[in-house]
Amino acid sequence: MLRDALPKIVTPSLPGPKAAEILERRKKTVPSAIRCPYPVVIQRGEGAMVEDVDGNRFVDWIGGVGVLNVGYSQPEIVAAVKEQADRYFHGMANVVTHPGYVALSEKLSELAPVKGAHKKAYFANSGAEADENAVKIAKAFTGRPNILVFSGAFHGRTLLTMAMTSKKSYAVGMGPFPDGVYRAEFPYLYRRPEGMPEEKAIAYYLQKLQEVFDQCSPAQYIAAIVVEPVQGEGGFIPAPLEWVKAVRKLCDQHGILLIADEVQCGFCRTGRLFASEYWQESGVQPDILATAKSIAAGLPLSAIVAREEIMESVPAGVIGGTYCGNPLACAAGLKVLEILERDHLAERALAIGKTVMERYRTWQQKYPVIGDVRGLGAMVGIEFVKNRESKEPYPELVSKLVAETAQHGLMVESAGVYGNVIRFLAPLVITDAQLEAGLQIFEQAIAACI
């Protein structure tokens, strides 16, 4: 079975002949702005494995950029979606009530680690929509116009979320952007000011946040501060817990809501169902949680969760949409939650992350181009630099590694402010043998490319 197979390239080169023909057709009909650096045309996927149209097998460390925590083609999810499809495909929440929407809202309200005794949840279609909706309800509840986001942040490609996103290569020529979005420096501890002891860094980054209040928008006009518990596109940088606790305190002092953007880091990726459970264990909680990606194993779905008083502040008609909470996606989402709990995938994420971190740290001693290794659970980043002393980013090497690993049956993806990080987002159902095969391919690629 593909689910248990190992990577294997059977064609003399990549892409193979069938894939090359389809990729040529893609070039003629699909905009080149939708970039794809991989020579892979998928025929089928199972677990953590992809087989292309020529019979080449790849172990996937990208997982649809965090969508496939339960893996490709999970049989129980396929069955749940088929069963729902036999009844009806669509039921808009403004027109009819379908039980799956209600059941998934109940379940997420129970599980999400947000502040409040009674919580409510509703659905959108994408991570960007979830983030934008979280901002909407924060503005409705506070009556304030502005939000605060961070360097390195990625929140989406709608007009508002392009403004919220730090890396403006995702928004070339798209301005003017909405007003009222202000940015502070995220605690990227590896790149803290030169010579600064780590113990002083948290105070430094909190001062940078305070400067936004002083120079951009007074705190009384900020509706929400939006934080990724682990920055995704920014380079897989966990938000330090001491900093999160201080941000929560600032929010409480000024009546600001704290939004956790768990679009990429949710659904057991970090060793908890939601990464903000680590916040909760440290005594703080977000007010609103926005999540998507692995929520429905690949079907378009996202969710926003908050306490009742926040949710009920939103005027009728301001939130919702035609496909939001689609019955097929909700059926998948309910089954995903069942599988995550039953199969102990949070614990599996911790075990996978331990293996990957240990191996990466061994490489860090061996290869001077590895500057930093960091992450939470099975969400791990490895940062490449030209020089450890200067920490000069090495995106050219990362581009070579992405191409080289693919040629040998491993799919990896870059990330980071400078494009010099490779992210680990393999499905949590990856076997130990597949993980080891991927690690071997990756190290061989580093040795070949430096």
TrEMBL record:
Return the protein name.
Answer: (S)-3-amino-2-methylpropionate transaminase
Ordered alphabetically, the record's keywords are: Aminotransferase, Pyridoxal phosphate, Transferase
Q: Which InterPro entries match?
A: Aminotrans_3 (IPR005814), Aminotrans_3_PPA_site (IPR049704), Class-III_PLP-dep_AT (IPR050103), PyrdxlP-dep_Trfase (IPR015424), PyrdxlP-dep_Trfase_major (IPR015421), PyrdxlP-dep_Trfase_small (IPR015422)
Could you say which protein family the record assigns here? Belongs to the class-III pyridoxal-phosphate-dependent aminotransferase family.
> Which coenzyme or cofactor does it need?
pyridoxal 5'-phosphate
The keyword Zinc is annotated on this UniProt entry = no
Its pathway?
Answer: Amino-acid degradation; 4-aminobutanoate degradation
For this protein, what is the EC number?
A: 2.6.1.19, 2.6.1.22
Q: Which GO terms describe its molecular function?
A: (S)-3-amino-2-methylpropionate transaminase activity; 4-aminobutyrate:2-oxoglutarate transaminase activity; identical protein binding; pyridoxal phosphate binding
- Xref: Pfam families: Aminotran_3
Q: Which reaction does it catalyse?
A: 4-aminobutanoate + 2-oxoglutarate = succinate semialdehyde + L-glutamate; (S)-3-amino-2-methylpropanoate + 2-oxoglutarate = 2-methyl-3-oxopropanoate + L-glutamate
Organism superkingdom: Bacteria
